[in-house]
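Lab notebook, bench 4. Still working through the backlog of constructs that have no structural model yet. Next entry is a single chain of 259 residues. Request: give me the structure tokens for it.
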Amino acid sequence: MQAFDYKTPTTVADAKAAAAGGAKLLAGGQSLLAAMKLGLQAPETLASLAGVEGMRGISVSGNVVKIGAMTTHAEVAASADVKRAIPALADLAGHIGDRQVRNRGTIGGSLANNDPAACYPAAVLGLGATIHTDSRTIAADDFFKGLYETALAEDELITAVSFPVPEKAGWQKFKQPASRFSIVGVFVSKGSQGVRVAVTGAGAGVFRAKALEAKLSGSWSAAALQGASVSAEGLNSDLHGSAEYRAALIPVLAARAVG
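Model written out:
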């Protein structure tokens, strides 16, 4: 891996200044460092967000769970507050990657990277969460734009994510056994925003399965999804599964998440 300078900002303003000066921001590093090892990224300077004040921690206020961007997957999975308010979110966080990944990877880093098979985007979109940045708030429906693409501006920094507490929610992932990424993952919820079904791993990015949402709006039950289908058009085909295979998995996993 190539040589680079390393900065340790302690405030959001310092982190943004480092980025403006050409530094690549480092959250958990689970994607960036791997890309650097492969020669796909070659930043001259890294600025770690680990010491930035106010970007870590979990709080519950009313019916909202707010998670700081630098909170690790392991911390979310172990949080009694998250387990009580949104058990499906804690379950999702507890099955991301392996122990090393869960103890280094962060929710903010995952969302900013927006890997098409990552788990957190499904929870954020499936729960209708709000992404907080240093300058604004972004609704989940407006945040994810496509393959590794988000609504974040060049100099914009995720600081936290707010999740509305749903009446019901569930998560199911059919994982690739080596990487533990989702071949298909489905997050379902029923709450103040109605029924939401978010799918990861199947396409170029996370998306909502509106046809399944309509069926579950009529009856929140696995039985409501019997015979349901999702179009394979535009879905991924690779060595792990065809587009048709992924399309067939989506309603099956949605039914398991509900049931």
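Notes after review: The chain has a mean pLDDT of 94. The radius of gyration is 18 Å. Flag for follow-up if needed.
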